[in-house]
Amino acid sequence: MTDTTIFDKIINREIPADVVYEDDISLAFKDVNPQAPVHLLIIPKKRIATVNDIAEDERELVGHLFVVARKIAVQHGFAKDGYRLVMNCNEDGGQSVYHIHLHLLAGKTLGWPPYANAEPKQG
C-alpha cells in the first residue's frame, strides 16, 4: 500500500478539505461531489483499503466511524429526521478511493432503493 490517496493528502493537510469533525483516529469532511444537501465522508486516519481488508483488531476503529456519524447527526440537527450511512467496497460496489470511508447523507428524504437507476453488470 504505497500509493498515496487523496484521503491521505487530506489527513496530512497537503490539500484542503472542509472538515466538520476530527479526533485522534478519524476525520469527517464535506464531499466535493455531494449527492444530498448534507454529504460527508467519515474516514479513519489509518488507511484500510477496502472493507475486505478490515482486520479483526480494527473492529473498534470501524465502529468508531459510526459513533462519529451519530455525533455529527446530533450536533447538526438531523439525527431525528434521519440520515443514510453507506460504505462501498471495490469497483463494482462503487468505491473510487481505496481508503475506507463512510458516506453520511442527510438533509432530504432519501429514496429507496438507494441505487434504483444502477445498471446490472454485463457479462
From TrEMBL:
Question: Could you name the domain of life of the organism this protein comes from?
Answer: Bacteria
List the SUPFAM superfamilies hit by this protein, alphabetically.
HIT-like
What transmembrane ranges does the database entry give?
Answer: none
Provide any one GO MF term from the record.
catalytic activity
Chain ranges for the short sequence motif Histidine triad motif as given in the UniProt record: 99-103
- Taking every annotated instance into account, which residue ranges of this chain make up the domain HIT? 6-115
User: Where are the active-site residues found?
Assistant: H101 (tele-amp-histidine intermediate)
For this protein, the record's PANTHER family field holds: HISTIDINE TRIAD HIT PROTEIN
Protein name from the UniProt record: Histidine triad nucleotide-binding protein
Species name for this entry?
A: Pseudidiomarina halophila
